[in-house]
Amino acid sequence: MIGFRGEEVKHGEKSIDLGSRKLVAMRDVQDALAAGATSIETAANCVVTPSARDFLQQHGIELVMDKAADASAPAASDDYASAPAAVKSQAAVNRRLFTTPEAEEIKKEICSVGRKLWMRQFVDGNGGNISYRIGPNEVLCTPTLVSKYDLTPEDISLTDLEGNQIAGSKPRTSELLLHLEIYKSVPEAKAVVHCHPPHATAYAITGRVPPNMIIPEFEVFVGKVAISPYETPGTKAFAETVLPYVREHNTVLLSNHGIVCWADTVTHAEWYAEVLETYCWTLMLATQLGVPISTISEQHGSDLLAIKKKLGLPDIRFDTSRMKECQLSDLEVPGSIALEPTPCDGNNSNGGNGGADLESLVKAVTDAVMEGLENRE
Questions:
Q1: For 127-164, what is each residue's pLDDT tens digit?
Q2: What CA–CA distance (Å, rounded) separates 245 from 375?
Q3: How far apart are alpha carbons 312 and 151 in whole angstroms?
Q4: Catalytic residue IDs
Q5: What pLDDT was estimated at residue 368?
Q6: Which of 35, 179, 185, 197 is within CB 3.0–4.6 Å of 131 for a Cys-Cys bond?
């Protein structure tokens, strides 16, 4: 029996043989479901996109990836006619992955999010970068030296997890290594957004993290924020600064630089940037009122963490063995906020990278907050 687009359907098992495919995308698995498949077979070296895998799991379709890898490569173009067969085959896979309907939709989403970042003044000039892991070893990312407001789908590049560009006409972002280290460390991370929102970055340049248990939405979607030490942007050393934190924090402050967020979609990663920036801005406004800042009780805080856990979001406070280190809030006295920095190797105890002017600024802010606490009735 012949199934959709000429593929063989085995009788009884309702299995669709995709052994000739080098890549299986969303449209392929949707067609398989429509054909009544209960399983599909692919070659062991076939690339199955993340959304296609999710679709198969949601609809109970088994994925069997032990078919002999006997698929022939597409006809070679003059550009790589002399390349080894394995290179030709992989190049064909990359080209198809880069132009699948799923990839085109993600490119549009990246451009939309880039425009949101620019409109909210989270980036300026050519600053910031966005990426999405579309395959096991393939990442879509923004280009270098292009304003996020002006992004078009044609600007997006495709790279591997080592940073090698494998498709796209414009050079990939110079800070891609930061994204790749997160993907390697956090398997569930599918999207990364790096930007420079002013109020969150203000915390980053003073070596401070915002206190917790003040606004519910922040606790659920972001929560405890870590701060990484400074390294020159674009370097491998810079990319590796976030490794101690990203497993238990979906948002990290980058000392003297900005922030980075990861999530299951590009849109959600941008949401976390919005949540953090609004929270930091609100705290700065509140400290100017000259009255104490109220906090959420421990019981209500536990309720928020329970909601967060159900959503599958990470939080260092889930680790009960580190409860003393990771208490729900940062309170020194009930109802107050603490402005102590998160311990971070590479940062001095008074902030990101020290300096008399920086210490004076931090002291002035701290004194203003403490004066408000002393006047509390």
A1: 999 999 999 999 999 999 999 999 999 999 999 999 99
A2: 37
A3: 31
A4: 175
A5: 60
A6: 179
